[in-house]
Amino acid sequence: MISHPSRQCTVELQALPSRIGQVRRILSAQLRYWHLDQLIDRAALGVTELLTNVHRHAQPDKICTVEIELLLDRLTVSVRDHDPRLPVVEDAPDLSTCGRGLAMVAAMSESWGARRDASGKVVWFTLPTGVSGAPGVELGLAEVGEVEAAGVAG
User: Fold this and answer.
1) Mean pLDDT, contiguous 10-residue spans, the chain (154 residues)
2) What per-residue confidence (pLDDT) applies to 92?
3) Which residues does 56 contact at the CB level (< 8 Å), separation at least 6?
4) Cα–chain-centroid distance for residue 91?
5) What 8-state DSSP symbol labels residue 133?
6) Contact at 8 Å (CB) between 53 and 87?
7) 4-19 per-residue burial string, b: 16 or more CB within 10 A, e: under 16
8) Where are the beta strands (DSSP E) in the chain?
9) What pLDDT is attached to residue 69?
10) d(CA 154, CA 148)
11) φ and ψ at 142, to 5 degrees?
12) How far apart are CA 39 and CA 30, in angstroms?
Protein backbone atom coordinates (compact mmCIF):
# COMPACT_ATOMS: atom_id res chain seq x y z
CA MET A 1 0.00 0.00 0.00
CA ILE A 2 1.36 3.40 -0.97
CA SER A 3 0.92 6.13 1.60
CA HIS A 4 1.45 9.83 1.10
CA PRO A 5 2.98 12.39 3.43
CA SER A 6 0.88 14.76 5.45
CA ARG A 7 1.64 18.44 5.13
CA GLN A 8 0.87 20.82 7.94
CA CYS A 9 1.19 24.50 8.83
CA THR A 10 0.37 25.96 12.25
CA VAL A 11 0.09 29.60 13.32
CA GLU A 12 -0.59 30.80 16.86
CA LEU A 13 -2.07 34.27 17.25
CA GLN A 14 -4.36 36.58 19.14
CA ALA A 15 -7.61 36.73 17.13
CA LEU A 16 -7.78 40.47 16.57
CA PRO A 17 -9.16 42.01 13.36
CA SER A 18 -5.70 43.29 12.42
CA ARG A 19 -4.24 39.76 12.64
CA ILE A 20 -6.95 38.03 10.59
CA GLY A 21 -5.66 39.56 7.35
CA GLN A 22 -2.15 38.33 8.17
CA VAL A 23 -3.43 34.79 8.68
CA ARG A 24 -5.30 34.95 5.37
CA ARG A 25 -2.04 35.93 3.63
CA ILE A 26 -0.13 33.11 5.35
CA LEU A 27 -2.82 30.59 4.42
CA SER A 28 -2.89 31.83 0.81
CA ALA A 29 0.91 31.60 0.51
CA GLN A 30 0.93 28.08 1.96
CA LEU A 31 -1.80 26.90 -0.42
CA ARG A 32 0.10 28.41 -3.37
CA TYR A 33 3.23 26.55 -2.21
CA TRP A 34 1.21 23.31 -2.16
CA HIS A 35 -0.19 24.16 -5.64
CA LEU A 36 -3.74 24.42 -4.29
CA ASP A 37 -4.55 27.88 -5.66
CA GLN A 38 -8.11 26.75 -6.44
CA LEU A 39 -8.82 26.44 -2.68
CA ILE A 40 -7.52 29.85 -1.59
CA ASP A 41 -10.79 31.79 -1.73
CA ARG A 42 -12.86 29.20 0.15
CA ALA A 43 -10.15 28.46 2.71
CA ALA A 44 -9.57 32.18 3.33
CA LEU A 45 -13.32 32.78 3.76
CA GLY A 46 -13.63 29.87 6.17
CA VAL A 47 -10.65 30.80 8.33
CA THR A 48 -11.85 34.42 8.44
CA GLU A 49 -15.23 33.29 9.77
CA LEU A 50 -13.68 30.99 12.39
CA LEU A 51 -11.22 33.65 13.58
CA THR A 52 -13.98 36.26 13.70
CA ASN A 53 -15.95 33.93 15.97
CA VAL A 54 -12.94 33.61 18.29
CA HIS A 55 -12.59 37.40 18.34
CA ARG A 56 -16.28 37.96 19.07
CA HIS A 57 -17.10 35.08 21.41
CA ALA A 58 -14.08 33.28 22.93
CA GLN A 59 -13.41 33.61 26.65
CA PRO A 60 -11.17 34.02 28.66
CA ASP A 61 -8.78 35.22 25.94
CA LYS A 62 -8.46 35.54 22.18
CA ILE A 63 -5.36 33.35 21.83
CA CYS A 64 -5.89 30.65 19.22
CA THR A 65 -4.06 28.31 16.88
CA VAL A 66 -4.84 27.95 13.19
CA GLU A 67 -3.78 24.69 11.61
CA ILE A 68 -3.99 23.73 7.97
CA GLU A 69 -3.30 20.14 7.06
CA LEU A 70 -3.16 18.47 3.69
CA LEU A 71 -3.70 14.74 3.82
CA LEU A 72 -4.28 12.76 0.64
CA ASP A 73 -7.08 14.53 -1.24
CA ARG A 74 -8.42 16.70 1.59
CA LEU A 75 -7.43 20.03 3.14
CA THR A 76 -8.47 20.54 6.76
CA VAL A 77 -8.45 24.01 8.32
CA SER A 78 -8.96 24.18 12.08
CA VAL A 79 -8.98 26.86 14.75
CA ARG A 80 -8.32 25.92 18.37
CA ASP A 81 -9.12 28.33 21.22
CA HIS A 82 -9.39 28.20 25.02
CA ASP A 83 -13.19 28.55 25.28
CA PRO A 84 -14.92 25.16 25.78
CA ARG A 85 -18.30 26.47 24.57
CA LEU A 86 -19.16 24.96 21.21
CA PRO A 87 -20.40 27.29 18.44
CA VAL A 88 -24.04 27.40 17.40
CA VAL A 89 -25.25 27.76 13.82
CA GLU A 90 -27.86 30.52 13.80
CA ASP A 91 -30.80 30.95 11.45
CA ALA A 92 -30.00 34.50 10.38
CA PRO A 93 -32.08 36.29 7.74
CA ASP A 94 -30.61 36.18 4.21
CA LEU A 95 -29.73 39.88 4.24
CA SER A 96 -28.25 39.83 7.74
CA THR A 97 -24.68 41.13 8.04
CA CYS A 98 -23.84 38.94 11.05
CA GLY A 99 -24.74 35.56 12.48
CA ARG A 100 -24.28 33.66 9.21
CA GLY A 101 -20.59 32.72 9.46
CA LEU A 102 -20.90 29.06 10.40
CA ALA A 103 -23.73 28.56 7.92
CA MET A 104 -21.41 29.92 5.21
CA VAL A 105 -18.60 27.63 6.36
CA ALA A 106 -21.01 24.67 6.22
CA ALA A 107 -22.21 25.65 2.74
CA MET A 108 -18.79 26.11 1.17
CA SER A 109 -17.00 23.16 2.78
CA GLU A 110 -17.15 19.42 2.28
CA SER A 111 -17.65 18.95 6.02
CA TRP A 112 -17.19 20.90 9.24
CA GLY A 113 -17.51 20.38 12.96
CA ALA A 114 -16.50 21.36 16.47
CA ARG A 115 -15.27 19.39 19.44
CA ARG A 116 -14.06 20.10 22.94
CA ASP A 117 -10.49 19.22 23.84
CA ALA A 118 -8.33 19.48 26.96
CA SER A 119 -7.61 23.19 26.47
CA GLY A 120 -10.92 24.45 25.01
CA LYS A 121 -12.34 23.60 21.60
CA VAL A 122 -11.44 23.05 17.97
CA VAL A 123 -13.65 24.17 15.07
CA TRP A 124 -12.69 22.78 11.66
CA PHE A 125 -13.75 22.43 8.05
CA THR A 126 -12.53 20.37 5.12
CA LEU A 127 -12.18 21.08 1.42
CA PRO A 128 -11.56 18.47 -1.27
CA THR A 129 -8.41 19.14 -3.27
CA GLY A 130 -9.89 17.72 -6.47
CA VAL A 131 -6.97 15.32 -6.87
CA SER A 132 -7.97 11.71 -6.23
CA GLY A 133 -5.43 9.05 -5.40
CA ALA A 134 -2.53 11.48 -5.10
CA PRO A 135 -0.97 13.44 -2.28
CA GLY A 136 -3.22 16.36 -3.20
CA VAL A 137 -0.55 18.48 -4.82
CA GLU A 138 1.76 18.45 -7.76
CA LEU A 139 5.19 17.98 -6.27
CA GLY A 140 8.08 20.15 -7.34
CA LEU A 141 11.27 18.39 -8.44
CA ALA A 142 12.98 18.89 -5.08
CA GLU A 143 9.96 17.48 -3.27
CA VAL A 144 9.75 14.47 -5.57
CA GLY A 145 13.29 13.61 -4.57
CA GLU A 146 12.40 13.96 -0.88
CA VAL A 147 9.32 11.76 -1.28
CA GLU A 148 11.15 9.07 -3.26
CA ALA A 149 14.04 9.14 -0.78
CA ALA A 150 11.50 8.49 1.97
CA GLY A 151 10.25 5.45 0.06
CA VAL A 152 6.94 6.97 -0.96
CA ALA A 153 6.97 6.92 -4.73
CA GLY A 154 3.73 7.69 -6.44
Assistant:
1) 65 93 95 96 96 93 95 95 90 61 91 95 96 42 32 32
2) 60
3) none
4) 24
5) T
6) yes
7) beebebebebebeeeb
8) 7-14, 63-71, 74-81, 111-117, 120-128
9) 96
10) 8
11) -65, -40
12) 11
pLDDT of residue 131: 59
Sign of the CA dihedral running 77, 113, 45, 127:
positive
What is this structure's pTM? Answer: 0.77
What is the pLDDT, as a whole number, of residue 137?
A: 39
Q: What is the DSSP letter of 94?
A: T
Q: Which of 51, 55, 73 is nearest to 123 (CA)?
A: 51
Q: What is the pLDDT of residue 133?
A: 40
Assign residue 123 a region (left: φ > 0; alpha: ψ between -120 and 50; beta: otherwise): beta
Q: What type of residue sits at position 142?
A: A
Longest Cα–Cα distance of the chain, Å, equals 54
The three-class DSSP label of residue 3 is coil
* Mutual angle of helices 17-33 and 40-57, in 10-degree steps: 150
Contact indicator for 122, 86 with CB cutoff of 8 Å: no
